[in-house]
Design goal:
Number of helices: 18
Oligomer: single chain
Largest sheet: 8 strands, mixed
Number of strands: 21
Distance between the termini: 111 Å
Shape: elongated
Length: about 575
């Protein structure tokens, strides 16, 4: 005999607690949810009706929201307000919510963030003879439904929220007014705000034009008020198929290391997020966006967008439109674009890395720091070398430049990645990553009479520095002001010996033993420098040895290596010897 099905034991109070305190990010959303419900009720009625009224009662510590929308019957109250989860009309609800912002029952739960009791008085507009019902929900998960003692004269709904004493600030007049303006300013449905007992007339908080519909100066003022900066430029955004419209405001200041600041997202005119990062690609770090999400669906909390194929498509297309806007700016307003490049160069690098079709655009417009001064990629020679660290660029740019080559500082965020991508995407320019060992290989070796002098100096220097685990090489290179060069050692690895009876060794040329690279760090001495040449002269042995030690420690300091206590003492001793010898 099969087991008898049983029902879960549901703790309604626990469900209310979880949904009301974990679904939403802050108690502030309860104002938005009440406005959403009132707006949806007005839209559902489909008639020109009186404004939605928000009234704060400071004496009672309450907020009342009155709409003249479609209203509710007692059956509606039981199914929409009192049922959490499944609905017998789920498909109808899903279709209907394309025109609506919220779902009455779930949204109403947000009021429990500030109150223990929610009162709903409503009269349905569907039935002229409908009575006014009163529904009261409690934070413990219970509710009551009864005829209202004071019937509403016209159809619609009145919601009253009495805040708990410790949450009274959330029904304060200033707080509610600011939140109502933030959430409802772009809604087409008329919404007013008033304070009970205040003789001043109600103030309209909705009906403002959207920033993407404003003239340039007015849009800039909106941006400054909403985002806190005067825009350098603005880029219109429009995806008619999804009902998406917006504007990207380009900032006039860089925000390195902070990533993308959030965008202001609206849904059917209601502000649902002020820091959303879903609709615009990450590389658009140079702009803040105000945008209507159109038909894109919201999550249950209505504070973010539901991740979907439509959202991914929208994000990609909006990225295309931002890129097109940048190119229009470059062609139409060179002065503003020059400021944009100067401030947001790193964002352009990220753009080029993410979208290879923009590589040539960035190559034409972005200026790089090089050993020959500021240059754009299109102005550089056919062969360049780039660093991935600032320290390498500052240390070795003069040496590379003196050898007739060009060193580019690729240490910016996305800089090296962009140069590698550009190297692969075209054939005019070849870019290779800077390697200190390769620089050493390219430095000229002493010739003629200098070869013998270099040999003598090298032999003496090795005798001094072998004890410190440092190899020595002598070259003759420019600039002469660069006395020494430090080349870090290689990490030790495994060495495999040749198998003596390997029949392929002779054929493949592997019979001769391979010359192993010296893994130690190397001091490179520049024979063109007079101070280095003096090491091969008639210096006293003690003076000469300390001079060699001092040159080694100088190379470490030039490479940005911090001297240990023992090395500092060694440098002090060497300097003392040299000073005494010169006195």
């Amino acid at each position: 005999m099969p087991p008898t099905p049983e029902n879960f034991q549901v703790d309604l109070r626990g469900i209310v607690e979880i949904l009301s305190h974990n679904l939403y990010s802050s108690p502030r959303v309860y104002v938005r949810e009440l406005i959403q419900n009132a707006r949806d009720a007005v839209v559902a009625r489909g008639e020109q009706v009186a404004p939605v009224e928000l009234v704060v009662d400071p004496a009672a510590g309450a907020l009342t929201v009155r709409d003249h929308g479609i209203g509710l019957t007692e059956a509606d109250a039981r199914s929409l307000l009192s049922t959490i989860g499944a609905s017998s009309k789920r498909e109808q609800l899903v279709a209907a919510r394309r025109e609506f912002l919220g779902q009455f029952g779930i949204g109403l739960l947000s009021c429990f963030l500030v109150a223990d009791q929610i009162e709903v008085v409503s009269r349905s507009a569907r039935d002229p003879q409908a009575t006014t019902m009163r529904w009261i929900g409690y934070g413990d998960g219970t509710f009551t439904v009864s005829p209202a003692e004071q019937p509403l004269e016209e159809p619609g709904t009145l919601v009253r929220v009495h805040a708990r004493p410790d949450e009274a600030e959330w029904v304060g007049a200033d707080r509610v007014f600011r939140l109502a303006r933030e959430f409802a300013s772009l809604l087409a449905v008329p919404i007013t705000f008033a304070v009970a007992g205040d003789p001043r007339p109600a103030v309209r908080v909705s009906g403002d034009p959207a920033p993407w519909d404003l003239p340039r100066e007015a849009a800039a003022a909106w941006c400054e008020d909403a985002f806190g900066f005067a825009p350098l430029a603005s880029i219109p955004l429009d995806l008619p198929m999804l009902g998406i419209r917006g504007v990207a405001f380009v900032t006039g200041e860089a925000t390195p290391g902070r990533g993308r600041a959030g965008d202001r997202v609206f849904s059917h005119g209601m502000s649902v997020a002020s820091d959303n990062t879903q609709l615009v690609p990450e590389w658009v770090s140079f702009a803040r966006v105000a945008i209507e999400a159109g038909s894109l669906s919201l999550t249950a909390s209505r504070e973010s967008l539901h991740e979907s194929a439509a959202l991914a498509t929208a994000r990609e297309e909006l990225g295309h439109q931002v890129r097109a806007g940048i190119e229009r700016l470059a062609a139409g307003d060179p002065e503003v674009f020059a400021r944009f490049v100067d401030v947001h160069g790193q964002s352009l690098l990220a753009l080029a890395v993410a979208h290879p079709e923009m590589l040539e655009f960035v190559a034409r417009h972005l200026t790089w720091e090089t050993s020959s001064g500021p240059l754009r990629l299109v102005e550089m020679p056919a062969r360049i070398t780039f660093t991935t660290q600032d320290r390498d660029f500052s240390s070795y740019a003069p040496i590379v430049q003196a050898q007739g080559d060009l060193l580019v500082n690729g240490a910016y965020t996305h800089g090296a990645a962009m140069l590698r991508a550009y190297d692969q995407a075209q054939s005019r320019l070849t870019a290779r990553e800077f390697e200190l060992t390769r620089l050493l290989e390219d430095l000229p070796e002493p010739r003629g009479e200098d070869a013998a002098l270099a040999e003598r100096i090298g032999t003496v220097a090795r005798g001094v520095l072998d004890a410190h685990g440092v190899a020595v090489d002598v070259r003759a290179f420019r600039p002469v002001s660069q006395l020494v060069l430090h080349v870090p050692g290689r990490a030790a690895g495994f060495v495999f010996e040749e198998v003596e009876d390997d029949p392929w060794a002779d054929m493949l040329g592997g019979g001769a033993p391979r010359e192993q690279e010296d893994p130690r760090p190397t001091l490179v001495l520049n024979l063109r420098a007079e101070a280095v040449r003096a090491l091969g002269g008639t210096l006293a042995p003690a003076t000469r040895d300390d001079a060699i030690r001092a040159l080694h420690l100088l190379s470490l300091l030039q490479a940005g290596i911090r001297l240990q206590a023992e090395e500092q003492a060694l440098l002090a001793g060497a300097l003392q010897t040299l000073l005494l010898a010169a006195s």
